[in-house]
Amino acid sequence: MTDFPLNVIASLGTGQAFFIYAVIGFAFGWVLESSGFGNSRKLAAQFYFQELTVLKVMFTAIVTAMTLVFAASGAGLLDYNLLWVPPTYIWPGIVGGFVMGVGFIIGGFCPGTSLVAAATLKVDGIFFVLGALFGIALFGETIGFYEHFFNSSFLGRITLSDSTGLTEGTLTVVIVLGAIGVFAGAEWLEERVGKIPRAQAPRWRYGAGALLILGAVLVALNGQPGSAERWERIASVEQLRLDHREVHVDPLEVLSLLHDDALRVQLLDLRGEFEFNRFHIRDARHLAGSPLPELAAELIAMPANTVFVLIGRTGDDMEQPWRALRAESVPNLYILDGGAEGWLRRFTNPSAPPVAPRLALGDRHPASDPNPRLFEGSFEPKVEMEIKRAPSGGGCG
Predict the structure, then answer these.
(1) Which of 271, 273, 279 is nearest to 360 (CA)?
(2) CATH of the domain at 347
(3) What values do phi and psi take at 315, rounded to 5?
(4) Is residue 383 part of a domain?
(5) Are the C-beta atoms of 370 and 343 separated by less than 8 Å?
(6) Are residues 214 and 155 both part of a single domain?
(7) Is 248 exposed, middle or buried (0-12, 13-18, 19+ CB in 10 A)?
(8) pTM value?
(9) How many domains does the chain have?
(10) What is the per-residue pLDDT across 332-387, written as a single tens digit (0 to 9) for each?
(11) Which domain holds residue 261?
(12) Least crowded by CB within 10 Å, which of 16, 45, 132, 319?
């Protein structure tokens, strides 16, 4: 298992976590203020190609963070699957970006930089923050009128690598080179339009650019871990859990989990369509043939109190999918011991006739939704909730 990302509160406690958040927030605010981001005239000047500090600072932050993230992921220090990537909503995103862009030009701030200006008691920054708070309140009170549009054109987690088919390393090199080209173009515009002599720019920027290119090339050469390599990194622990059947959960325990109001239970049935139609547990999702990496991304994004139970024909046939999903960092993942057939035997009245092989009962069989009060017994509890390491949100305000 990788060391990062950390669940800071769970690892260090609330007090220390809040202290770390304050230090990071102070450093972020200090960088923004020292870069001139508390000055609305400086910020607005970028839209007239007179002063492009904002573009250069933000783009530098993006390419530096991107290079370090994929370098850490390639080195096995960071689990990229657990990083928060905001889901894509095409049309709401376009409309929201347009509104924010217009607001940025008129007001001279984005939400984050307005807080920097307000912190230094600039009047325009204070009024911008007050306006932003009013807008947030108004949005919260009126979302019901356009909620359908707000949640429309959902495409989930999409990255450039997913869209282009290029590896993360190749994209890192391409984007870093593109950023350096954009910086050169920005300096040219500043000199022509803003009358800022290029000689004023620090010479160390050439060395920094060369270092960034070298880092991107090393990231591309090192590559990113595939499923097999990810499994090898955790196999010493996870294979033991599998061998000792610590992840094979008794049907009675699964039934109790399904009636635990504090938990969300996702039953993932990976059997073929014929077997699923013949019988399945109520509310089970039929996922046979689903690409496991895409399924893993969906499961990771679910709330921290979610338990995932793989359902196969016998249970043992789910060990390979379990390995693949655990390698992709899916938490709280277990296997229904005995599979669907074991569930059917456990919760079927012994005197009842067996399900005919060609009968498609689906979830209409009594055993698909058994009453837990009618089936008492003991079992060894296996399910232990993991601390969720993946954040459920993020981004720049």
Answers:
(1) 279
(2) 3.40.250.10
(3) 100, -55
(4) no
(5) no
(6) yes
(7) buried
(8) 0.84
(9) 2
(10) 999 999 999 999 999 987 777 677 777 788 999 889 999 988 888 899 999 999 87
(11) 228-374
(12) 16
